[in-house]
Amino acid sequence: MTDPIWSSFITERDRQVFAASGYGALQGFGKRPALLVIDVNYFFCGDRPEPILESIKRWRNSCGEEAWAGVAAIKQLIDVAHDRALPVIYTTGIRRADDWDIGSWAWKNSRTGERPSPPNGLDGNTIVPDIAPQSQDIVIYKQKPSAFFGTPLASYLQLLGADSLIVTGTTTSGCVRASVLDAFSNNFRVSIVEQGCFDRSQASHAINLCDMHAKYADVIALDQALGFMRTLPRGLFDLPRGDSDNALPLAANG
Amino acid sequence: MTERIWDRYLTARDKAVFAAGGFGTHGGFPKRPALVIVDVSYGFAGDRPEPILDSIKRWSNSCGEESWAAIAVIKALAERFRERRLPVIYSTGQVRPDGWDIASWAWKNTRTGESVPRPTQALDPNTIVADIAPQPQDLVIFKQKPSVFFGTPLASYLQLLGADGVVVTGTTTSGCVRATVLDAFSMNFRVTVAEDGCFDRSQASHAINLCDMHAKYADVISSQEVLDHVQRLPENLFPNLPRGHVPAPLRAVG
């Protein structure tokens, strides 16, 4: 087995402690997984692949080139999930125009108030077009790191009968970690696809994968995830139909 | 700026990105803080100070000697909070004797079964260490997952008290401390982490999780700075603290 990405960041004592205390065992996949794609939008990717220190001049949350390598991996996972009719669930941010609901985000970052004004007028919360959600996919709008916090995600997973999540997106140390934690606390099995996750900080990326693999999730390779998803029968889930004809009558019921 | 514990784990690019991205500004100390002491139990501290690799032979979750250095710090903080009539809130774990509710904890650790109290043990791993045993007026939260908020009344207690923020201490930095800080952030509480009052079994995880929290969710400061802040707070901020004793006639009710 090749050394995990975090091996160059942890101490020798850490290695011994993790081994002796029993952490990092493999839990394996669930039987009914949903694919989760966290916050892969212009805010976190920038509008094109470029070195991170360039990209964050315009997009303060950008993760630079690694973001676009992650997007390519995520696209492969989405294509297989669609082929197997597995749920594909995206998250992205949402905020009032007057920023009142920014809350605690404003307290720790000197650039929080920035409204990026790229030449083409892109909305930072738009999921990048390479992996744009399709009509049968589910999009969760959130305000805080976890995809579960203040959102209907748990109720949707219950409705779908999902028992597990395959997690991708960004940032590894932020919204991915927060969502994995809540999935763990809700007793979902979690697999994290390493190539499908990215972060602005190299050390945070590596150590957060280490922490999650030790305690909350299996950190796996893209090929493992693709291979597993291909073994699943089609029709496991009663997915949204994705047609728009019902939108108006359903809305009128409220 | 003095060197931080996480500096030696970061890459040069990470340092440039954190600075350029605007992360890690000073969030500010709460006006009405509660002290939260996360999971400082025998399970995480061991029954006495000894090197971690010895301690985890008997206590699979132990953080070794660092635990006891932090316990001395936490003791001083708890005493000052009580003197100033500020809330002191503990958490510790709770599990059924048959282990049914261990659930996702059992999936990633080969020694999870050891966290169920055994009759042969003189000490219950979930007992808070005697040096900082909760006093009658303190609040104790029993929890099953990393965050002290998850599936507990903590948020409702903070609302009842009118607290606007929390000072977080305890263990592990990368586990239950981080999870609790994250949920406090998501609920728009001001969060301070007392660095020397936190401990972890992994040196790298301890450092990088402090880095992540300081970048995004909390002010990571020394316990001395916390004591200084507390000293400047007005008297009698929390007139509705628990009384800590129940008059005999009330006890019979309900």
Radius of gyration of chain B: 18 Å
Distance between the termini of chain B: 56 Å
Number of helices of chain B: 9
Question: What is the CATH top level name of chain B?
Answer: Alpha Beta
Please give the most extensive interface between any two protein chains, plus how many residues each contributes: A-B, 59 and 63 residues
CATH fold naming of chain A: Rossmann fold
Strand order of the largest sheet of chain A: 3-2-1-4-5-6
Q: How would a textbook summarize the main sheet of chain A? A: 6 strands, parallel
State the low-pLDDT regions of chain B, or none. none
Q: What is the mean predicted local confidence, pLDDT of chain A?
A: 93
> Regarding CATH, which class of chain A?
Alpha Beta
CATH architecture of chain A: 3-Layer(aba) Sandwich
CATH superfamily of chain A: Isochorismatase-like
Secondary-structure element pattern of chain A, one letter each: HEHHHEEHEHEHEHH
Distinct helical segment count of chain A: 9
Describe the protein.
The complex is a heterodimer of chains A (254) and B (254). With 254 residues, chain A is of the alpha/beta class. Chain A has one domain (30-234): Isochorismatase-like (Rossmann fold, 3-Layer(aba) Sandwich). Chain A is built from 9 helices and 6 strands; from the N terminus they run H-E-H-H-H-E-E-H-E-H-E-H-E-H-H. Chain A has helices at residues 12-21, 42-45, 52-58, 65-84, 153-160, 172-185, 202-215, 222-231, 247-253, and strands at residues 33-38, 88-93, 138-142, 164-170, 189-198, 218-220. In chain A, strands 3-2-1-4-5-6 form a 6-stranded parallel beta sheet, with helices on both faces. In chain A, helix 4 (65-84) runs parallel beside helix 8 (222-231) and helix 6 (172-185) runs parallel beside helix 7. Residues 249-254 of chain A have low confidence and may be disordered. Chain B is an alpha/beta fold. Chain B is built from 9 helices and 6 strands. Chain B has helices at residues 12-20, 42-45, 52-58, 65-83, 154-161, 173-186, 203-216, 223-231, 248-251; strands spanning 33-38, 88-93, 139-143, 165-171, 190-199, 219-221. In chain B, strands 3-2-1-4-5-6 form a 6-stranded parallel beta sheet. In chain B, 49% of the residues are buried. The model of chain B has no long low-confidence stretch (mean pLDDT 94). Chains A and B meet through helix 1, helix 3, helix 6 and helix 7 of A and helix 1, helix 3, helix 6 and helix 7 of B.
